[in-house]
Every structure is written in structure tokens, then in C-alpha cells.
Predict the 3D structure of the following.
Amino acid sequence: MSVEEANAQQAVDDAINANRERRYRLDEMKKRRDEALAKEAASLKKKEEDAQMLQNSIDGHNEHKSEHDAKETHLRPSLESMRCRLRMAVEQDQSITSGIEAKESAIQRTRGKIHDAEVAKVSLDEKGKHKVQRVDAMRDACREAEANLEARRETLAQNVVRNRQLHNEYLSLKGNIRVFCRLRPQLPSEQNGDMLKVELHNDREMTVQSALHKSVTGVRDVSSSWEFGFDQIFTQDSTQASIFEEIALLVQSALDGYRVAIFAYGQTGSGKTYTMEGLQGEKQNSEDAGIIPRTVDLIFSEMKEMKERGWTFQVHVTMLEVYNETVNDLLASKSGAGTPREREEPKTPRAASQSREEAKTPRAASSTNEAFSEQYRHVRVENAAAVHHFLNRAARERHVAATACNDRSSRSHAVFQLALSGRCDSGAGGVQEVEGVLSLVDLAGSERVEKSQATGERLKEAQYINRSLSALGDVVEALAKRGPNGSKHVPYRNSKLTMLLKESLGGDAKALMFVNISMCNEHLGETVSSLRFASKVHACNVGVAKRVAAAGSH
């Protein structure tokens, strides 16, 4: 080997050794670098974990801070309210303190007054003793006055009963049909017409005068006059209440076992329906209530008082109308079905303990007329409200129409009847039973066709009305000729109306007729005709009314 090769080989070996040395150092450096990177990575990871923990701590702190902020926001109004209340409490405390001081001052003044009062009390004690003695004396006087008042009440109650008995005896002895006359005031539509001249001598006698007219010779002006006398004359300003007050005792006679009949007569438009029923429909009011609704209220009020004395009553109501000589039952069902006597439930609250079979039991028919009336419905009622229900129903069912004389003319005769059966099981007289009947009749008005200008169906109705009233006049005339004990035939059968009124006119009833007249001079002819008929009725002596009581009753 040459020196060059040896040098080259040496150089190669040196290079190899140097390369190995460098590789070794590189490996050492790489190892140290890897260790440093591992340490750096571990440190970085720890820092990240610390950072995460710090972030979590910060988040938790923020949440707690939000909660504390919310609580602070929520509590701030309460704090302000408590501060406000504290200020108010402080002010109130100051006020109370001031009030206490004022009260203490007032107490001191009051103590002074009490001292003065105690001093005055000593001087008043003597006066007080005298006053106590006077009070005791006044109490004794009051007790004595109360005892006298109670005695007077008992006497008054006895006098009421005695008064009713005397009234019944007076009407029974009188015998005649009583007649009341009522003057109807002019209507607004009649203000321009001439007023009828009526001179009232007293509350029983009057004179009707016609307007001036030429004498037969035509030389001078003359007037005709007619004098009439009745049991009572009611002027134009008489109220419904004052009129009913005059007949209240008569109505109560039905509870004593008498037949009582009240009927209204007069020309069309003379105020008969107003007298008997009062205003109808939306115009109804207690002040203008007529005889029929007032009678119903009085009957049930008296029954309530008599119940305290041991009396019990059963009441049956019947409502009929005579229209064109046909009797219509205003309580019958539309189909016409139903028994003559039954109990119907009106739309009013009332007791329903009575059995229907008992309510269907008819009264014994003692005459042909009772048998005639028994074919119609007799409805059991328990109170006044039930009767008013049926009255309103009957008013809707009744035939009315407008004519030239009256814009609401009744085209039928209306008959309202209350049958009263009373029984008393207590008292020294033993069992007492009475049977009373109260009939209230609103007659259709007489009319002249030439004035009412009735045609067609209205003309037919007017003819039937006048015919039935004419039959009523024939009955009255026959009664006047017969006298109380006469045997002359009375033509009740000439009309359905007179058949229904037979018991009211035949002597067994206490009868009262209202004759209603218009105060318009143009109605003079009808007015005089009505008054003449009423005078004829007043002259009828139909005998003594009879009380219907069971054997052994008093």
C-alpha cells in the first residue's frame, strides 16, 4: 500500500470516526431534545389542565356572581320597602309619642273633669232618687196602659166579628139587590165634547139633566131631567181603593157561608172592566187594581187570619164567558179535555200536597142551576198568586174588539167565581162547616149599533149582547113583580147569562150591582137607559139571603 492510499484510508477512517462522533452527538442531542420536548409537553399539558381548572373556577365564580346579582336585584325592592317602612315606623313612633303626650295631657284634663263630675254626682244623687221613683211610676202606668190596650184589642177583634155579623144581618133584612152607581170621568179623547149635567144631592141621590132643546111649540128652550136614587153614588174622583172599601164586608160574607154576587152593568166604554179588573197588561199596578184582584187578596188574607182561630178553607175557582150565547170555559184546555173539577198547577210556587182525586170531588148539586154550572171546571187553588195567574190567563182568552165607541170593548160577559168550603174543628160549638160562593160578573156593555158602527162579526156580537141584557131586564122585571115570596115565573132560561146569574138574583145570594155611566152628553140616551135599569134592579125585593152551613154549625 502506498502512502497516499494509506493517507486516504486514514482520512476515510478519520472521516468515519468523525461521522460516528457526530452521529453520536446528534443522537445525544436528539435524545436531549426529545426529553426536553417531553418535559415541555408535560409542562404544557399541566398548564392546559391548570388553565382548564382556572376556567372552570372562573365559570363557577361567574355563575355564583350571577346568582348573587339576581338575589341582589330581587332583594333590592324589599330592602327599599323595608327602609321605607322603617322610615314610616320612625315617623309613626314619633307620632305615637306625640299622641301619648297629648293623651296624657287629655287624661289630666279628664281627671279634672271626673273630679268635677264626682262633685256634681253627689248633688245629682238626690235628684236621681226622685227620677227613679218617677220612672217606676211611669213603668207602672205603662203596664196599666198596655193591659188596657190589650183589652181594647180583644174588644176590637170581638167588635170586628160582631160588625160582620151585624152587616150580614143588615143585608139579610134589607132583602133588595143593592145598587152602586159610579160616574166615569171624561177620557182625554172626550175633552172637546159636552159634559153630562149631573146634580148630586148627596151620596145616594142625583138628578141627570139633558142639554137645552126647543119645546114642542118651539117657543122656548127646555131641558129634561131624571131623578135616581141608589145605595151609594161614587163620583168621578173616587179611587179603586175607596170603592172596594165600601164592599169589603160584603166580600167577607162569602167566608161566613153566604152566596155573594157583585156584577157591573152599563153601556160600552163606561168603565165596567176597569171597575171589576183594573188596568190590564203592562199598565197593571196595585193602585188601579179592580174589585176582582182586590177581592182575591182580601179573601186569602182573611183566610190566613181565620186559620189562627182554627178554620181551614178549600178554594175552587171558575172562570166563564158568555160569548154569542155560548158559554166558554176560560180555564179549559185548548183541546176541551179535562174533568169539570180538577186541580191545575199554575206557573206560581205553591204547595202540592193535596191529592188530585180529592180536588176532583164535585160539590153536591142542590139545584138545576148548580148542575148547570158543575159541567165547567172548578180548579183548586192554594193562594192568591195562583188566582192572579188564572185571572191574567182569562183576560188573554176573553173576547175583546175595537168599536167606534170603545177601542177595547168587551164582546162577552165574564163570570168569575170562588167557591169557599170552610171547616173549624175547634171551639165550644163543636165542628163548624160553611159553604160560601163569591161571584163577580163583568157584563158586556149595551150599545147602539148606529153609534158603535158595528158590522159583520161585531154586529153579530152586539146583537147577542143586547139580547142577553134584554133577557136580564126581563128577569129583573119578573122579580120586581113577583116580590120576595111570589110564585110568578122568572124567565131565567131565556139566556145563558141569566142561567149563570140565577143563583145571584134568585134570593139566596147577597147581590150588589155597579151601574157605570159615562159623563159625556152624547151618551145621554144610553146613560138614562142604564140608570133606569139600575133603578128597576134596586126596586127588586128578592128575599132574605141564606147562610149555607152544615147541621150543628153556628
Residues 335-369 have pLDDT under 50 and may be disordered.
